[in-house]
Amino acid sequence: MTHIISLGPLLRMARDTVANPREGAETVLALGLPRQALWLAFALVIVLSMLLGDILYLLAGLPQGGPLTGPMGASPVIMGALQAGFLYLMAHAITHIGRLFGGTGRFEEALALIIWLQFIFLCVQVVQLIALVALPPVAGLITILALGLFLWLLVNFIAALHGFTSLGMVAVMTILSAFALLFALSLLLTLLGITFGTV
Predict the structure, then answer these.
(1) Which of 56-70, 82-96, 172-186 has the lowest mean pLDDT?
(2) In contact, 128 and 56? CB cutoff 8 Å
(3) pTM score
(4) How many CA atoms lie within 13 A of 49 on its CB side?
(5) First to last CA, the chain
(6) What would the pLDDT profile of 116-127 be if each residue is shown by its tens digit?
(7) More confident residue, 137 or 116
(8) Which residues contact 127 (CB under 8 A, 6 or more apart)?
(9) How far is the CA of 100 from the CAs of 11, 40, 87, 173, 175, in angstroms?
(10) Alpha helices, DSSP H, located in the chain
(11) In whole angstroms, what is the distance from residue 99 CA to residue 81 CA?
């Protein structure tokens, strides 16, 4: 397992996962990462995502913290905690909703796939940074393509996690779960006094 820790093998795994998402997910699941390593990787991708996100906002001429406003909306700690909370809930939702449909995945496996998904999108953020500097109009296109890629990878990851064969069923389950998570997140943001402002 230690041979994949360096950046080169991770980037090759990310490339292979984009080319064949289900096989990539099965490769990650086969690693059997211990719980301590999972939580360390979880914290690392959150921190890196926040840093790259701030750089992207600065290069795009947007205020740090994005469109969230309110007494705590600009706090990096709060924003990091919200992102971590959302991904944690996402892993639980993937696990338990999948089990309702007869899936067999465990929370630790779902968490490993969510972490891997975040790593792939850290790579996408780096590509966006390069595009913002070299070809700014292309950055917007990358954002649109990234959204489609995210949904495609997530559906395949869930299918691999729970042993599902119907990607259509998984897609419907994913959309319903996303609406539920977004609703719960919006309630949490409201309770924290954070709202969406214009940029």
Answers:
(1) 56-70
(2) yes
(3) 0.83
(4) 22
(5) 44
(6) 999 999 999 888
(7) 116
(8) 142
(9) 34, 29, 20, 10, 15
(10) 7-19, 21-31, 35-59, 76-100, 107-134, 136-162, 167-191
(11) 27
CA count, 13 A, side-chain hemisphere, 68: 21
Q: Is residue 100 packed enough to be buried (19+ CB in 10 Å), middle (13-18) or exposed (0-12)?
A: exposed
Residue whose entry in the numeric block shows the structure tokens 């959302």: 86
Q: Which residue has the higher pLDDT, 133 or 62?
A: 133
Query: Distance between CA atoms of 57 and 150, rounded to whole angstroms?
Result: 20
Beta bridge partners of 69: 195
Q: What is the mean pLDDT of the chain?
A: 81
DSSP output for 28-49: HHHH---HHHHHHHHHHHHHHH
| Percentage above 70 pLDDT, the chain | 82
Q: Is 194 left (phi over 0), alpha (psi -120 to 50) or beta?
A: beta
The pair of three-digit structure tokens given for residue 100, joined into one six-digit string: 């309702």
Residue 180 is given by DSSP the state H
